[in-house]
Amino acid sequence: MHASTPTYGLRETLLEPRTLAPPPTRHALFVFVIALAAILHLGTAGWSEIHNGVEGEYASTARALEQTGMWNPPGPPLHFWLTIASFKIFGASAMAAHLPVALALVSAIAFTFLIGERLASYWRGFIAGLIHLGCVGSFIWARIATPEPLFAACLGATLFCAVSGYERRNSRAVWFASAWVCMALGCLAKGVAGLLHPALILLLVAFFCREARIRFRSLLHWRNVLLFLALLLPWLVATQFQVLPLQLRSGAGVPLWRFLAGHFLWWFPALLLVLPGVVFEWRKVFRPHDRDLVDVLPLCWMAVGFLPLLVLAGRQDFDSMNMWSAFALFAATAWDRLSRPLRLAGLALVIAAGAVLITMGALNLAALPPLPSAWLGARSVIVLGGIAILFFALLAAYFSWKDRET
Q1: pLDDT for res 23
Q2: Calpha distance 75→138 (Å, rounded)
Q3: Are 296 and 88 in contact (CB under 8 A)?
């Protein structure tokens, strides 16, 4: 009598590594997200021209500084420095102006993955990274040459270092010092907001999480503060302590109603995926009685990055980009906690949205004179986008129904 040799399927071998030693899944997922982000943003950096308004003002200022040989703009200089360097390497073009912004967004998505991995697991980081990458707003506003994606990357790096120091006692001093370095870069990208945003986020986290109050105390070590000042003081002295952001924006800001309504589009489709759970299983999603870092950090991050924009004048749609990573982390956590019926309900909303897009694109828009002629040229793009959304949402619904989400 001989013993039979067991066979293992895909699920047992790759997704449930209890039987065999797991393959380097984490590295493959991380490389996949970064490669996809690079293809989507770096590969399309030259697709659009420089537009009038905010983008044109930033790009023209960087072009003027590059022509005159000046490297000391009257305000947060990091975005200008990177754009000037891009102009010198690739020449003055729309692609060169968009390249630093694309690199910044790829970095922000990478830190979304890494923070999600630190808070929960690499699968949580993978889903959060895909949500961040797949949101409509990330695709649209990453093509506008402004400092917002750069600030989002610096803020993500700061919080990643803070979370790593929170979890790793032996290397806590190094991680917290790195957090101050990233905060200094954030100040060079966005002015005083580079310090205020992470400070307020970590202060709120410490308020709600007792363990964070204990572990974050060493963040305020005098060596870290001196390191921050040593990195920042040369710029402050050179600009005569002009620490506020450079005001390049012309005209009034976005009305509040349009700002709020716009985020239903900027956060599509992830917002639709988790909306049923937020409404019907909000206690399961938010867990008001649990104050773990995995729950507290994304919500505090979202509050600091979004709520002040509701009362500040001159707000723009892309001003909230610094907290889109937090939204991705929250959405990934919410999706992981939803019951199967509510997951299917969220996917049904996305399927309906895809069907609406296909219908809109298939209409004979030429017979509707109020619509601009540019809409007709975008009809094929709308149809293809709707087909892609419909196909993959149906595929996701099938695997969710079979309890095979991973």
Answers
A1: 57
A2: 25
A3: no
